[in-house]
Amino acid sequence: MSIKRIISIFRNDFVNSIRDKMIVYLMIAPVLLALVVRFFIPGYENISIKFGVEESLKPSIGAFLENYADVEYFENRSEIYNRIEQYDDFFGISTSSDGNFDFILQGNENERNIEIADGLLNYYSTPSVVRDSLDIEIKSSGKTLPILATIGFIFVILVSYLFGGLTIAFNMIEEKESETLKALDVTPLKLSELVVGRSILGYFMPIVHAYLGVLIMGFEGINMFMLLIITLVSSLIGIVFGFAIGFISSNQFNGITNMKIGLLILMIPTILTFFLPKGAQIFLYWAPTYWSAMALKDLVNVQQRWGNMFIQISGIILTLTIFILILTPRFKRTLKL
Amino acid sequence: MIEVKNLFFKYNKSHEYAVDGISFDINEGEIFGFLGPNGAGKSTTQKILTGILPVQDGEIYLRKERIEKFNNDYFNAIGVSFEQPNIYGKLTGKENLDFFASMYDYPVQSSSNLLKMVDLDNAANKKAGEYSKGMQQRLVFARSLINRPKILFLDESVSGLDPSNAVLIKEIIKELRKQNTTIFLTTHNMTVADELCDRVAFINSGKIVLIDSPRNLKLRYGRKLVKIEYENDGCLNKEILSLVDDKDKQRIVEITKTKLIETIHSQEATLEDIFIKVTGRELG
């Protein structure tokens, strides 16, 4: 293989891509999606319990809660209501007409957070003699992000893997339409060099997007080396997807249609991982994106282990190998390099 | 330089051979014209010789050695100018040439010199997609020369160009012949073939029906007549006279001595006339 030719293919694809509005959109879309997740989906900050307490209760329950949670103070009950209506889990404490206090919920809070908040209030209600005799230590039982945040993270990262491949697809479609592939056919360029050179962009974009996405979304505690391994393996999904779309699409219009269908097929298993019971997930094993989503899910929830990740990336490689074995003979016939 | 023996090719869904047992050879430094109407098998033959299509049946020899597989040595030695201007529209003319230059294993020509040669130096940094069709065709022609090919395949490279650019490309082709480049010229334009080719092959329905030099073909199939136009008492007169009949020969001498001759044309056949005569089919 000639390194010179591989780099030329990559450079040519890159220059072509940044001069194509649609591909530029594919390049910036994951960044925009990461911003959406950052600003509209609750993240880690939601893991800590947050209370809104009326100013008058500051010396009593307010001071007590400050030991265990984030506490904000408000002038009156209506200010607490306004704050509770925001997207995150937030619990209000206000004085009630009988002199006690009211525990105010919006209704859509995470059950686990409700239990913790309830426990804290019960603890506060315990007579001080009993309370003082107890030695309470708060320990984290492992962070679990709100489901929406986990889905948001996986969606952004997977989209960046797949969009990397789509740049390959649209460069291939353009070559088909302009017949430049024929001109490459009569040069010393080999099929392997074309595939490797073209795949660099399919790796380059996801790596940049994955790290940029994590930074933008603000998720903490993610093992960046694990992210790199998952990205390197998962980018193959995008690359194979890109080559497949490029191979079956005869023009840009056709390519967009195939892209939509392909994205739907690949993204549905990732969503289903959250809703199907574990036993039924065997039906998703065929999809490389399922394995990738599982790896990312454990990663973002800071529960990923090397052994577990090895099984997940093996799943990606195995399912992709089957796809590649099916596609390669037809692909070779088309390119004839 | 190249020898083709009993070459056959059939497309998947077709019952008929697109190339039906053709044989020919091309000498080093020769311009060999491959002429025929659309669908005759010209482009299929060229695609086989350039490795785009596989050799289904038949033999191809390069310098007496049989080509079993088109390898890098072969691709480093050939240049192909396609009929369709297949270029990267978002790259500039220079970027197009530089990209293809990077595909070869040996030293290549400077893209700037090539662009100058085909009169595109002023548009070197303009996106090739914004070129006119003629400019794109010249760019494709320039691209085919980037690796200083020993064998050059030209598919309708002159057809469709405006007269001044057609002259420019024809001059470059003639210059390449002087440099001993072997040229396989596919065209349905008989005038171009007549002007450039040392030998031509007529292909029809996948079969070669005739191979010879344009001069020999014209002599063999042409009529030995001459058409003379002259002025007589203020009127324009025309006579068609035989070059072999004694009486007509004397008449030619008489006219040249006594009349004011305006034009004299020998009446040899054109390549197009010969093609129609041999195949019973017009070039399209």
Which terms summarize this structure?
heterodimer; A: 337 residues; mainly alpha; D-Maltodextrin-Binding Protein, domain 2; 2 domains; four-stranded mixed sheet; B: 284 residues; alpha/beta; Rossmann fold; six-stranded mixed sheet; four-stranded antiparallel sheet; 10 helices; 13 strands
Task: Furnish the topology, listing elements before pairings.
The complex is a heterodimer of chains A (337) and B (284).
Chain A: H1 3-18, H2 21-40, E1 50-54, H3 58-65, E2 70-74, H4 77-84, E3 91-95, E4 101-104, H5 111-125, H6 128-133, H7 147-178, H8 180-185, H9 191-217, H10 224-248, H11 252-275, H12 288-300, H13 306-335
Parallel strand pairs in A: 1-2, 1-3
Antiparallel strand pairs in A: 3-4
Helix pairs in contact in A: 1-9, 2-7, 2-9, 7-9, 7-10, 7-11, 7-12, 9-10, 10-11, 10-12, 10-13, 11-12, 12-13
Chain B: E1 2-9, E2 19-26, E3 31-35, H1 42-49, E4 57-62, E5 65-66, H2 72-77, E6 78-81, H3 93-101, H4 111-117, H5 133-144, E7 151-155, H6 163-178, E8 182-187, H7 190-196, E9 199-204, E10 207-212, H8 214-221, E11 225-232, E12 235-242, H9 246-258, E13 260-266, H10 271-279
Parallel strand pairs in B: 3-8, 3-9, 6-7, 7-8
Antiparallel strand pairs in B: 1-2, 1-4, 4-5, 9-10, 11-12, 11-13
Short synopsis of the structure:
Chain A is mainly alpha-helical and 337 residues long. Chain A is 68% helix and 6% strand.
Query: What would the principal axes of the Cα set say about the shape of chain B?
Result: globular
User: The CATH topology of the largest domain in chain B is what?
Assistant: Rossmann fold
Indicate the radius of gyration of chain B in whole angstroms: 22 Å
Give the total of beta strands of chain B: 13
Described by its quaternary structure, the protein is: heterodimer
Domain module tally of chain B = 2
The secondary-structure class of chain B comes to alpha/beta
Question: How would you state the average pLDDT of chain B, rounded?
Answer: 88
